[in-house]
C-alpha cells in the first residue's frame, strides 16, 4: 500500500491540475494535458479511445435525470444545462480517479517486479488474459486492466445475469456501484 501511494498521489496531483471549468457544462478534467511523458500521454489517449477514462458510472446516474428534464419543456435545455453544471463534480471526480489510477498503475508497472507480481496474482483472471492476448504484456495493458478491475466497467455486459432482465434491472437499480465495489474489494483483498 505504501508503494502504491508513492505512485498514486503524484498522479492525483497531476490530474487535479488539469481540472477546468466551462460555463456550458461545468467542471471537467482536461485529459489532453495529462501525462508527463509522450508515452504517458499516448496511454491517456489510448485509454480515452478505449473507454477506460469515460465517467460511465456517473453518466449512468445522470442519465436517470435526463428523462425527468425532458418533462419540463419548454425549458428543458436550460434545466439540462443547470443539471450538467450541478452534477459536473461527480463526472470530474470519476474522471480524476480513473486518470490517476491509470497513470499510477502504469508508472508502477514500469517496474518489472510489480509487473511480475500483477501477472502472478491476476494471471487467472479472464479479462486480464484476454487483454494480454490482444494487447501484449505491456505496462499499458496492466494499467488499463487495473482501472477496469478497480473502478469497474459499467453497462449491461458487466452485470450479473439476474440483474439483466426487467425485474433484476428494477430491483438492482442504483446498486451496481455497491455490488461492483464489494466485488472489487473481495478480489483485491484475496489477491494482493
Question: Averaged pLDDT, please?
Answer: 78
The arrangement of helices and strands along the chain is: HEEHHHHHHHH
What best-fitting shape do the alpha-carbon axes yield? globular
Query: What kind of sheet is the major sheet?
Result: 2 strands, antiparallel
Tell me how many strands there are: 2
| Terminal Cα span | 10 Å
Uncertain stretches of 5 or more adjacent residues? none
Percent range for β-strand residues? under 5%
What this model shows, in words?
The protein is mainly alpha-helical. The protein has nine helices and two strands; from the N terminus they run H-E-E-H-H-H-H-H-H-H-H. The protein has helices at residues 2-16, 38-50, 56-70, 76-109, 112-122, 126-135, 139-151, 166-171, 176-191; strands spanning 19-22, 26-29. The chain has a two-stranded antiparallel sheet. Helix 3 (56-70) packs antiparallel against helix 4 and helix 4 crosses helix 7.
List the helices and strands and how they pair.
Blueprint: H1 2-16, E1 19-22, E2 26-29, H2 38-50, H3 56-70, H4 76-109, H5 112-122, H6 126-135, H7 139-151, H8 166-171, H9 176-191
Helix pairs in contact: 1-4, 2-4, 3-4, 4-7
List keywords for this structure.
192 residues; mainly alpha; two-stranded antiparallel ribbon; 2 strands; 4% strand
Amino acid at each position: 500500500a505504501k508503494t502504491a501511494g508513492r505512485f498514486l498521489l503524484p498522479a492525483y496531483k497531476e490530474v487535479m491540475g488539469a481540472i477546468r471549468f466551462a460555463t456550458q457544462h461545468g467542471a471537467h478534467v482536461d485529459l489532453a494535458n495529462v501525462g508527463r511523458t509522450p508515452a504517458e500521454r499516448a496511454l491517456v489517449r489510448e485509454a480515452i479511445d478505449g473507454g477506460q477514462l469515460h465517467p460511465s458510472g456517473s453518466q449512468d446516474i445522470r442519465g436517470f435525470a435526463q428523462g425527468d428534464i425532458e418533462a419540463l419543456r419548454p425549458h428543458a435545455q436550460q434545466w439540462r444545462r443547470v443539471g450538467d453544471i450541478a452534477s459536473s463534480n461527480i463526472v470530474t471526480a470519476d474522471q480524476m480517479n480513473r486518470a490517476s489510477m491509470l497513470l499510477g498503475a502504469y508508472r508502477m508497472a514500469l517496474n518489472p517486479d510489480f509487473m511480475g507480481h500483477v501477472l502472478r496474482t491476476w494471471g487467472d483472471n479472464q479479462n486480464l488474459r484476454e487483454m494480454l492476448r490482444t494487447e501484449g504484456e505491456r505496462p499499458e495493458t496492466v494499467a488499463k486492466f487495473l482501472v477496469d478491475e478497480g473502478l469497474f466497467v459499467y453497462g449491461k455486459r458487466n452485470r450479473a445475469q439476474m440483474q439483466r432482465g426487467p425485474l433484476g434491472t428494477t430491483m438492482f437499480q442504483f446498486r451496481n456501484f455497491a455490488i461492483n465495489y464489494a466485488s472489487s474489494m473481495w478480489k483485491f483483498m484475496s489477491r494482493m
